[in-house]
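Researcher: We're teaching a course module on how sequence relates to structure. For the next exercise, students receive a sequence and then see the predicted structure as C-alpha cells, so they can try to spot secondary structure elements on their own. Here is the exercise chain.
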Amino acid sequence: MNKVEKYISDKSKELELNLTRFIQRVFPESQEIVPTLFLIDNTGQMNLVNVNQIFALSKDERDIHLAFIINQFKPIICCMINEAWSVFVNRDESLDVMPSESPKREEIVLLHIISPFQTQMITFNVTPDFQNITGEGQPFKTLSEPNGEMKNMSSFLVEIYEKTGPSKTEVEQVVIKNKLKV
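Model: And here is the predicted structure for the students to work with:
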C-alpha cells in the first residue's frame, strides 16, 4: 500500500467511525436519517450535501443529480448515509418484488464509503419499532448468481462515482499536490 492509499484508507476508517457514532446518536433521537452526502474534497475538507429532495425523484433523475454533484466536487472520498429496505431470504428462495415492496422487508441504515481505492457498504439494523439501531454495523452482503456464494453488494452510488468521480491517478495527484497528511 503506497502513501496515498494509506491516507485514503485511514481517512475512510476515520469517517466510518465518526459516521457510525453519528448514526447511532441521531437515529434514536429522530427515528430517521436524512440522506446526506459527505464529500472529502481535494483539500481534505468535508462538504455536506443534503440529498433528501433528490431521493424523492425518479431513479434516473436521482442518478443524474448525484452524478452532477459528484462531478462538480470530484471528492477523493464520497460517503453517503441513507435509510433503505432489505429482505433476507434463504439461498433456495427467490425475491419476486423489490425489497421496498416485500412484506418481509426490514429497515436498515446504509453507510457507503467510496473512493477509487476501496468501497465499503455498512448496514445498521433498525429495531422493528423503528426506535433504535442495533449492532455496530456490518459489511453489506448479498447472494450472487448463479452459485449462491456471498459477495459484497454494488450500489447505484458506486456506479455513479466510478463514472463521474476522480480516478486513482487523479486522487494520487491531488493528495500529493496539496500535501495532504500522508
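Model: If you want an answer key for the exercise: Residues 142-153 have pLDDT under 50 and may be disordered. The first strand starts at residue 36 and ends at 40.
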